[in-house]
Amino acid sequence: MPIPSPLPLPPSIEVHDLHFNYGHACALKYLTFNIPARQVTAFIGPSGCGKSTLLRCFNRMNDEIPGARLSRGSIRIGGVDIHQRSVDVVKLRREVGMVFQKSNPFPRSIFDNVAFGLQLHRMGNRSLLAQAVEEALISAALWDEVKDRLHESALALSGGQQQRLCIARSLAVKPRIILMDEPCSALDPIATAKIEDLIRILRQQVTIIIVTHSMQQAARVSDQTAFLYLGELIEFSATLKLFSNPAKKLTEDYLRGTFG
Ligand SMILES: Nc1ncnc2c1ncn2[C@@H]1O[C@H](COP(=O)(O)OP(=O)(O)OP(=O)(O)O)[C@@H](O)[C@H]1O
Ligand SMILES: [Mg+2]
After folding, report:
1. For labeling, which of 102, 178, 186, 243 is most exposed (least CB within 10 Å)?
2. Ligand 1 pocket mutation, candidates 49, 98, 259, criterion most atoms within 8 A of CB
């Protein structure tokens, strides 16, 4: 008997006719696309094209920027419009974690950094905390390097270890989605390779969106790639297809390094 193929997961994020403004300046326009669940999606495009703005829309981090607003369209995560009045932004940010370009551990111990989100959201009691911290550090491929120094300062870790600590911190609260904005741009090739290995493993559990200036990195880690230009989505397709046979001339020119 043939083995039935698994049913595809529903899309993780549905973006419909998204327009986004900083004051009068339009940073994103006419964006309509779906981000599949439990895959890696890369956003590429020249500086200023709106990659970080789009990423910050997904956990409403842009809400913190005065004058920044969604001027048209919608974003649904797990079927829910995230701009609905009933949406709890703190809960949204727990489900949609974020890792930044520059690792930003708190000047506290390694343990406290990972436990932070769990305590903030009052997830689990004291005895479960140590277990949850350990699990998150294992998932972030950092446990073996730090298990004997959990109560030392996080700032004593290397740049690559700090970035994996930030990933552990976001994993600890069991997000559905992790947004990564140029997570390797401050790292050397070895530390970068570790993060890329980690992304490949994590995609089995979470949906990952990564902004990167490295075409090689997008090609190595992502399942599909979105190419943005001047706030518009030019092309969004399977990574292999986009890099080997782009549908649009503009994508081809960008990949060739003609501009950007
Ligand atoms: N806080 C802000 N206030 C006003 N305008 C902003 C703000 N952040 C970004 N912009 C503008 O929005 C547009 C998109 O910026 P964004 O940072 O999203 O681009 P990006 O693709 O991430 O660029 P880079 O690759 O350089 O990080 C740019 O024109 C930028 O100047
Ligand atoms: Mg950016």
Report:
1. 102
2. 49
Segment 103-147, tens digit of pLDDT? 889 999 999 999 998 887 776 677 789 999 999 999 999 999 999
Ligand 1 pocket residue status of 63, Cβ below 6 Å: no
Paired tokens of 211: 């902004």
Q: Atom 3 in ligand 1: which residue has the minimum CA distance?
A: 22
Tokens 């506290």 -> residue: 108
Q: Is 229 in the pocket of ligand 1 (CB under 6 A)?
A: no
The CA 19 to ligand 1 mean position distance, Å, reads: 14
Question: Is the pTM of the predicted complex or chain greater than 0.85?
Answer: yes
CA pair distance 58, 177, nearest whole angstrom: 9
52 lines ligand 1 (CB under 6 A): yes
178-228 per-position pLDDT tens digit: 999 999 998 999 999 999 999 999 999 999 999 999 999 999 999 999 999
Domain annotation for the chain: domains and CATH numbers: 13-256 (3.40.50.300)
Are the beta carbons of 145 and 90 closer than 8 angstroms?
no
pLDDT tens digits for 215-244? 999 999 999 999 999 999 999 999 999 999
H, E, C per residue of 132-171? HHHHHHHHCCCHHHHCCCCCCEHHHCCHHHHHHHHHHHHH
Find the 44 Cα to ligand 2 centroid distance in Å.
10
Query: Residue 103 Cα, ligand 2 centroid: separation in angstroms?
Result: 15
CB-count exposure of residue 213 (10 Å: 0-12, 13-18, 19+): middle
